[in-house]
């Protein structure tokens, strides 16, 4: 249980980890019944726990919607706090369990596809060979999804495109990689103003933002006709003539049907980094993997 805490002469009443767990479950699950099942209590116990949390915080967290309930705008701050506390509590529990048992236990790592397949497979193989005591659990997903899981405490370390906002994060830059322009086969290449239309990453993609800014500097229009979070799909769209794309060279130019970039230098570069939550209980296994990724 978290004790009383004075903040600017205000007292925050005791909150329990269980109440915070109820809130996170209620936010993630589609119904209160499924949220109750997720935390192993009855719906009435969940409802009572959330009502007590609301009373102690002094802010309305839920509002009625039809026969159910939805989070209010004010609930977002409380929810992010709850996710952070649960993530750090889980980390501490895993760390103490490992210290007591002497076993490394699981290490949950997230990587974007190019990091896992092209840039760091050797580091992963070496880590597995050197640390057979570690249960390495690898998740491959886009940067935004990985960072969300990191903030929620579902991952211990993430390798992704450097985030715009590194608040609460420890960022270790690993490498830069070039992004080149690719046109459909047989396309007549003119001035940048004639390039496109484009097939590219989803709107929440950090790489898309880098591409859009680089194209803007060249004077090219960024008319998007198709989107995908998978570079291989975007490359296939280019081959089919759906549109142009800007892709990581390592992915666009490998395999049996490599794309040919426009002549000249790469359009832009993006930085890949290892990201962890700042101030969390880092395990020796995570430190060893990070050392392998950085080559130290």
Automatic annotation (TrEMBL):
Residues 15-72 form the HTH lysR-type domain. Keywords: DNA-binding, Transcription, Transcription regulation. Pfam families: HTH_1, LysR_substrate. GO terms for molecular function: DNA binding; DNA-binding transcription factor activity. The keyword Transport does not apply. PROSITE patterns: HTH_LYSR (PS50931). GO terms for cellular component: cytosol. The keyword tRNA processing does not apply. SUPFAM superfamilies: Periplasmic binding protein-like II (SSF53850), Winged helix' DNA-binding domain (SSF46785). Belongs to the LysR transcriptional regulatory family. This is HTH lysR-type domain-containing protein. It comes from Paraconexibacter algicola.
